[in-house]
Give the backbone structure.
Amino acid sequence: MIIEDLTVRFGAFTAVDRVTLEIPPGRIVGLVGESGSGKSSLARAVSGLVPYTGRIDGARNVQMVFQDPYASLDPRMTVGESVGEGVRRDRAGRRAEVERLLGLVSLPAGLAGRYPRELSGGQRQRVAIARALGAAPDLLVADEITSALDVSVQGAVLNLVRSLRDELGLSMLFISHNLAVVRYVSDVVAVMHQGRVVESGPTERVVGEPAHDYTRALLEAVPRLT
Amino acid sequence: MSDTPPAAHTRRGFPMKPRLPRTPAAVAGAVLVAAMIMLAVAGPPIWGASAERIDAAAILQGASAAHPLGTDSLGRDLLARVLVAGRFSLALALAATLIGGLAGIVLGALPSVLPGRPARLITGTVNALVAFPGLLLAMFTAVVSGLGARGAVLGIGVAIAPGFARLTQTLAATVAGSDYVSAARMLGVSRRRILTGHVLPNIAEPLILQLTQALGGALLGLAGMSFLGLGVQPPSFDWGRLLYDGFARIYVTPEVALGPAAAIALAGIGFNLLGDAMAKAAARTAAGGKASDTAVPPDPGEPNPGAVLEVRDLTVAFPGGVTPVRGLSLTIAPGEIVGLVGESGSGKSLTAAAIGGLVPYPGTVAYGRLLLGGRDVATLSGKALGTTLAMVFQDPMASLNPALRVGGQLAEVARVHQGAGRAEANRRAVDRLGHVHLPDPAARARQHPHELSGGMRQRAVIAMGLMATPRLIIADEPTTALDVTVQRQILRLLREVTEESGAAALFITHDIAVVGELCDRVMVMYAGRVVEELPVSRLAAEAAHPYTRALIASLPDMATDRDKPLASIPGRQPAPSEVGPGCAFADRCALATARCSAERPPLIPYGEAGRVACWEVK
Ligand SMILES: Nc1ncnc2c1ncn2[C@@H]1O[C@H](COP(=O)(O)OP(=O)(O)OP(=O)(O)O)[C@@H](O)[C@H]1O
Ligand code: SF4
Ligand SMILES: [Mg+2]
């Protein structure tokens, strides 16, 4: 799918400024940038949640997974009800589909009857991913889906993201401020700064030979253990 | 900041105060409401006959043994009439509340399903009605729809509706803006399904609570209407009507007005108290149960005279067996930066809060030793604590008053703690702001916090901590809300500040990678305990505890092999009330043996300047 000349304005403020970006089928495009650089506005425009000008071609069904797994599930719905929300089937068909979707995100089917408050953050985020997959999206937008998670469970969610690409051929726009995380999951990296994409290209190239000053600053700032 | 007195801090040795499951107000409300319901059910069958019995010989009497509240103009017993009127009064109030509540909820919910223009029209009308005095609205409706009970009920219903509409609108807007409703919209769920499936269930509870309280109000309102002659007309009677009839005689036989007045007041108060108590109970998170038994801490041994901070066997507990910090010990030397890492809920923030005397009620703090600069924290005055300890939190706005200029807030610290004059305090504030590399500090000092970026605000908070000369800076996730580039600048600043002033720092983070940037020593916390402690230089290669090693392995960095799956830790950390007798990590640990879940490994010295708590580390 292709995003062309996409602009998002809130009043006089331009949050996304004429962004053009291609997301090849079955690929993960990582979007990095600091907060306020327009990443989430771009995600919301692509998902049809905010008005925009410009063109989005080749993705009719876009689903989004949100940053905060504690706010993105209705506390009064069971896991099964949430995951089944986008599934248009009869009762039995829906139950089987929910089971399949939970399986896709490596959650036991027994979780369907539980409420979100009984789940850990990582499990909730998987439920949110399963719910999005239920609509069979052409594109999955993941907006900072690991930032609210602990490091000890982040790894499992990142592995899941990669396996969804490998096994389902899912295309994804993966947004994060954490360059190490983006580098790990993405095939292509785009760097956003003040509403514009300042650099994009294959992950190894952007990380290995950054062309833009801002990309270099980002790389420089990644905390290292040693 | 830390200059607030540690009011909520329950000092060591104090017994845990049990949370009252029933407040006197809640009990009174429940009793009154139950009595009213009983009266409505049993009143007419029991006293119905005597309430209607006409006695020409006993007209317009005052109180007597036969008629404790006197009689009316037909000689009927007023006590019996008050008791019988309960059913009608409560029924009318219920009807008015249901009419008002239903109309309000529909009006309030419509804007979230209707298209823009009609939605705005309804919102505007509701806003105008809310501003209109309720009693006027009620009287107007009652007069227009005809005198009598029906008019009064409609009137009160109409008066109640706008408030409900506003409440419904606010609640619905909050739910409609939530991520889960956005997700449902993307899935193509219809507006009607969103309303019935997401919005209504999530706003039902507060609305029902509001209905209970409105019932009390409706009762008073209806009585008022009857009292004004706009409500119930003879031969029917409710409490308001009885009050109206009795009021004419108030100078001769005041007791005839007393009965209905008391009934109205008691019922009104009852419903309000009950509604209030229910609302509070709903807002409170589950608590109660048995208080955790705080074991007597073992003998802490000799104090370490050189340490800036020395903590021995610190335990923080909440009622209900919740013990988020369990026998934690740590020592910080002057100029040293110690990192405290651990996942969410491991007790990092509560450890910091306990040191600063900021553990919220009803938490209790117990320790063998808690010395700041060699003195027991419990004996330090608020001022002494405020000058020795500086605290920096994740959200800088928690420490800054949005209504005041940044410079003024900093100067305030100098004036309160050091008794500096206004000019001197201001000069020092600008100097400190410059010190934390805020560009053009004099101009920034004149700005309000919202005019600064997140990173600048955090600098300002650090500058505020530096207004005094703290011996210890506790920074709880100070960079978590910031971008990587800004985060790095703040970390550098903290390092610089400690090096220069000789202050020590306790740096709390869930991000083990950040620790490597800044700290000298790391302490890894899990389920309320320190499980490993070691110099940062050895963290990457020589960490020994299985949890620390798994954390490091699961952290992607710029060199992680992109073709291999990331390591991850199965399961989750036990909640503070679930921690068992053994090693808290046992459920998730690849090396766990039977001994691990039965017996807790002690934190013992390991390697050079390290400590570890694990049976399998030899
Ligand atoms: N007021 C309270 N009443 C009851 N339990 C509490 C209270 N405050 C905190 N807790 C519990 O104590 C535990 C530790 O909380 P704490 O805030 O210290 O964690 P943390 O390590 O700082 O986590 P995070 O990384 O999310 O900030 C949590 O499980 C929390 O639910
Ligand atoms: S004590 Fe046992 S369960 Fe705990 S970390 Fe060591 S090996 Fe694992
Ligand atoms: Mg915390």
